[in-house]
């Protein structure tokens, strides 16, 4: 029963309480003083069954917290309409919503938000800012209620991965702006399923640690979405640029 | 706190060597106390080759005790006699007495471990002298063991005192005594108790024959669904631990829900959700999360005129079961995938979610890791015999029928005649392409043809080729796994314009499954023309590599065999999936486990896949096989 040494990933959430969950999937480099704590935890885990069981239990608890946050709110749809139901979900997660012709609604620091959006039964949601939210594959059920969404920002969401991206195609008619910057689990395989979003005009794929080859991925995504401005990675990264050369306009496709 | 045994701890801990620093610390402690053993001509440390070797043999204080010394980089031992405060915090747990015996036995087996006793009776200065004269840790180190149980006889006398004086033949003496000690310690290679660590246990509740993804999946669900923790002992027997011919590793790794049978669709849907949540199902503390490298790009199946109606009805069934599939006309196809040539295509079905391809090795590794953490036994060996016992019973129609049950499995070791009879209650046949041989061992199919006794398991190995080629102008990142009307299929591989694909040969062109040699002419003649027709960019491609693998092909109806055999009552099948075993493995594993534990299928009803259909002649045909 030889458990390999490598993982520091499962250790971080244990140690850092609520903030730790954001690091669950992340390739975050630990700081120096945390390394010693981690080593101590590893050591204890290897030598005592109780510690191992406790860590397992705490990890299960973290995961069930995420599941709870992403439970389905689709039952609200018949009473308040899909837009309010979806908006409620986003606000509960800690994100912000913008209804058409209205201002951004954000929850305050206690997580409460003004109840005015319950009245917007017919007003579609235009933009959602779900940055740093713990939204995952199941939670997208609720997000997909917002049929006329135009702008979606999933920056730094720790649980958004390739599977989630494959679920975004129902928004293809309306979605014009998508931002995936900083999502630790999104790789080029998930970006491949964004080709359904033909109306996309702006796509932000900067700072994706799981993408193996950012420059090449940027080029391939640009080829895939010819009408879209793909932002984030300088495709000339890794190439030597002379002083007179400038990066091309990213909206135009690479000439064959 | 419940302490793990030092061996378990040693097995898990793989940190960098604390050795030298602890050694220095211990030595300096010793030096501070002024004990004799460091006052010799050489500080024992000088004799140590610096580097990765762990260190110090001699304890700080001369009380009787045991010191473990490890000549490789893992841990350092310090004397029990030494007060805990003297040595650095990296002191590993030290086993006493009986534990010491067992542990020492195992330690001593490896030539890198040394046991050193520190004791009053021992002339430490002499030892120090010898130590510094010795060639280093692995050289003529002093080895002394005094387990508590053994008396203080010859072993504790100083090496030189036997001849009544200071003997010059120190090295010879030491090796002699070392040999003697080794032969007495338990676990050492010794004539009396042969080493059986490579053999499987003598009793096991369930024996899974075949360690591929299906076998491991059944074992996983058995352990997951058992009522009590540790309630079942499961043994997985795999003939080839390198998996060189196993279908799992050689598979293209696709998963799709585009089948014609509702059961297949449900199995694939469940497997997709299993793979999506694989880090919850297969979580092992201390192990990194698994990265399946899943490409959610979907499957695109093309149909000609004559297959279009069948495809439509299939898609209807798929949508009913919950798969996200849509139909596309040739125009829509051209719009979406401009690189396709839609000549001859009447209809296409495109899977949007939960379809794609992934890395089967990662799944296999994750399952193995999880199973090891759950306490499943693994054995590398071949099943050569089933010992059965029979019982004649009367059916309701007043016919006599002989029911057999397997109560012993003979597992033969590699390259040897040695075998271990394993008493078991249940046997699971997950041997993939070789399932028919395992079934024949149990007597399935030995009888007059046309009877239930004479119905063989119709699973045989079929060789399939997969070719990898490079095409710089080929389809882009959004390419799904495209399956052509002719049966040829291809998918993208990675970012670098590489593609892989193949085609199932027609019945009369089936290659000989005796080996896994690749036939490149098959690509030239049978695969490439179809690919080039469908995707004009593939006219200029260059084959980089190719491999071959087996399908566990069910010649009856190309669908899996699941569940118990009617006559051999405790053999359960999980095989015969003819090319879609990998994508259905989690679902099938759960179904077989439910069958064993509950007696019937609970979540997905796989009754159409039972063995009986071969005798009754009822085909559960699957139309969409690639």
From TrEMBL, chain A:
InterPro entries: LRR_dom_sf. Interacts with incompletely assembled mitochondrial NADH:ubiquinone oxidoreductase complex (complex I). Required for the assembly of the mitochondrial NADH:ubiquinone oxidoreductase complex (complex I). Involved in the assembly of the distal region of complex I. Belongs to the ATP synthase subunit s family. This is Distal membrane-arm assembly complex protein 2. It comes from Macaca fascicularis.
From TrEMBL, chain B:
Coiled coil: none annotated. Gene3D superfamilies: D-Amino Acid Oxidase, subunit A, domain 2, FAD/NAD(P)-binding domain. Its main location: mitochondrion. Pfam families: DAO. PROSITE patterns: PROKAR_LIPOPROTEIN. Residues 205-595 form the FAD dependent oxidoreductase domain. One of its GO terms (cellular component) is mitochondrial inner membrane. It is found in: Mitochondrion inner membrane. It is a single-pass membrane protein. Its cofactor is FAD. One of its GO terms (biological process) is mitochondrial respiratory chain complex I assembly. It comes from the Eukaryota. Keywords: Electron transport, FAD, Flavoprotein, Membrane, Mitochondrion, Mitochondrion inner membrane, Oxidoreductase, Respiratory chain, Transmembrane, Transmembrane helix, Transport. GO terms for molecular function: oxidoreductase activity. Associates with components of the mitochondrial respiratory chain complex I. Required for the assembly of the mitochondrial membrane respiratory chain NADH dehydrogenase (Complex I). Involved in mid-late stages of complex I assembly. This is FAD-dependent oxidoreductase domain-containing protein 1. It comes from Macaca fascicularis (Crab-eating macaque). The lineage of its organism: Eukaryota, Metazoa, Chordata, Craniata, Vertebrata. The gene is FOXRED1.
């Amino acid at each position: 029963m030889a458990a390999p040494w490598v993982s520091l990933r499962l250790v971080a959430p244990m140690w850092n309480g609520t903030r730790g969950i954001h690091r669950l999937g992340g390739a975050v480099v630990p700081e120096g003083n945390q390394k010693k704590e981690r080593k101590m935890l590893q050591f204890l885990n290897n030598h005592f069954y109780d510690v191992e069981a406790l860590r397992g239990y705490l990890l299960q608890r973290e995961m069930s917290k995420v599941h709870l946050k992403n439970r389905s709110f689709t039952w609200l749809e018949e009473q308040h309409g899909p837009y309010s139901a979806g908006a409620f979900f986003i606000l509960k997660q800690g994100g912000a919503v913008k209804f058409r012709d209205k201002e951004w609604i954000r929850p305050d620091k206690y997580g409460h938000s003004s109840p005015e959006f319950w009245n917007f039964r017919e007003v579609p949601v235009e933009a959602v800012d779900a940055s740093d939210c713990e939204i995952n594959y199941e939670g997208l059920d609720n997000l997909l209620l917002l049929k006329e969404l135009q702008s979606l920002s999933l920056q730094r969401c720790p649980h958004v991965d390739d599977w989630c991206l494959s679920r975004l195609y129902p928004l293809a008619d309306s979605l014009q702006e998508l931002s995936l910057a900083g999502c630790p689990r999104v790789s080029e395989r998930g970006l491949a399923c964004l080709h359904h979003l033909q109306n996309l005009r702006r796509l932000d794929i900067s700072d994706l640690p799981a993408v193996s080859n950012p420059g090449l991925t940027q080029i391939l995504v640009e080829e895939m979405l010819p009408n879209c401005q793909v932002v984030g990675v300088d495709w000339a990264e890794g190439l030597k640029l002379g002083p007179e050369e400038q990066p091309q306009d990213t909206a135009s496709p690479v000439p064959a | 706190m419940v302490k793990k045994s030092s061996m378990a701890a040693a097995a898990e801990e793989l940190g960098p060597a604390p050795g030298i620093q602890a050694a220095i610390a211990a030595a300096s402690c010793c030096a501070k106390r002024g004990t004799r053993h460091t006052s010799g001509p050489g500080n024992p440390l000088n004799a140590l080759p610096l580097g990765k070797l762990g260190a110090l043999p001699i304890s700080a204080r001369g009380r009787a005790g045991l010191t473990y010394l490890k000549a490789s980089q893992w841990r350092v031992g310090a004397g029990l006699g030494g007060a805990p405060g003297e040595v650095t915090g990296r002191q590993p747990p030290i086993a006493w007495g009986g534990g010491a015996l067992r542990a020492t036995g195992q330690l001593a087996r490896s030539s890198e471990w040394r046991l050193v006793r520190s004791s009053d009776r021992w002339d430490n200065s002499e030892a120090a002298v010898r130590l510094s004269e010795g060639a280093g840790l692995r050289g003529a180190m002093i080895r002394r063991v005094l387990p508590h149980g053994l008396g203080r006889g010859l072993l504790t006398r100083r090496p030189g005192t036997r001849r009544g004086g200071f003997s010059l033949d120190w090295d010879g003496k030491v090796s002699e005594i070392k040999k003697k000690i080794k032969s007495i310690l338990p676990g050492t290679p010794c004539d009396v108790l042969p080493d059986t660590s490579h053999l499987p246990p003598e009793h096991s509740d369930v024996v899974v024959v075949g360690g591929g993804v299906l076998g491991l999946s059944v074992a996983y669900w058995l352990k997951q669904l058992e009522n009590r923790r540790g309630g079942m002992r499961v043994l997985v027997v795999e003939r080839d631990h390198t998996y060189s011919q196993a279908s799992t590793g050689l598979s293209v790794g696709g998963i799709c829900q585009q089948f014609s049978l509702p059961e297949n669709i449900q199995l694939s849907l469940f497997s997709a959700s299993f793979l999506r949540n694989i880090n919850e199902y297969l979580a092992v503390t201390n192990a990194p999360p698994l990265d399946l490298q899943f490409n959610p790009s979907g499957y695109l199946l093309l149909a000609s005129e004559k297959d279009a109606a069948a495809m439509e009805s299939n898609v209807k069934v798929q949508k009913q079961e919950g798969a996200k599939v849509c139909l596309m006309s040739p125009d829509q196809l051209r719009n979406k995938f401009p690189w396709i040539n839609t000549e001859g295509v009447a209809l296409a079905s495109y899977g949007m979610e939960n379809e794609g391809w992934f890395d089967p090795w990662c799944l296999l590794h994750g399952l193995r890791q999880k199973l090891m953490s759950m306490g499943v036994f693994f054995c590398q060996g071949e099943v050569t015999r089933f010992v059965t016992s029979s019982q004649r019973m009367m059916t309701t129609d007043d016919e006599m029928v002989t029911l057999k049950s397997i109560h012993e499995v003979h597992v033969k070791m590699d390259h040897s005649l040695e075998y271990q009879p394993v008493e078991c209650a249940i046997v699971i046949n997950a041997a993939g392409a070789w399932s028919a041989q395992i079934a024949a061992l149990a007597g399935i199919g030995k009888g007059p043809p046309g009877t239930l006794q004479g119905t063989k398991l119709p699973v045989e190995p079929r060789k399939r080729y997969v070719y990898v080629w490079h095409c710089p102008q080929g389809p882009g990142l959004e390419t799904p796994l495209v399956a052509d009307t002719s049966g040829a299929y291809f998918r993208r591989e990675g970012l670098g314009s590489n593609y892989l694909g193949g085609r199932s040969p027609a019945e009369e062109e089936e290659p000989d499954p005796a080996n896994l040699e690749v036939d490149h002419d098959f690509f030239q003649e049978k695969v490439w023309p179809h690919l080039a027709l469908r995707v004009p960019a593939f006219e200029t491609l260059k084959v980089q590599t190719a491999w071959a693998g087996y399908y566990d092909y069910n010649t009856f109806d190309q669908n899996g065999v699941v569940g118990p055999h009617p006559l051999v009552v405790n053999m359960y099948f999980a095989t015969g999936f003819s090319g879609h075993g990998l994508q259905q493995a989690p679902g099938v594993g759960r179904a077989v486990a439910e069958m064993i534990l509950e007696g019937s299928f609970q979540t997905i009803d796989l009754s159409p896949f039972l063995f009986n259909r071969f005798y009754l002649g009822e085909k559960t045909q699957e139309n969409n096989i690639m």
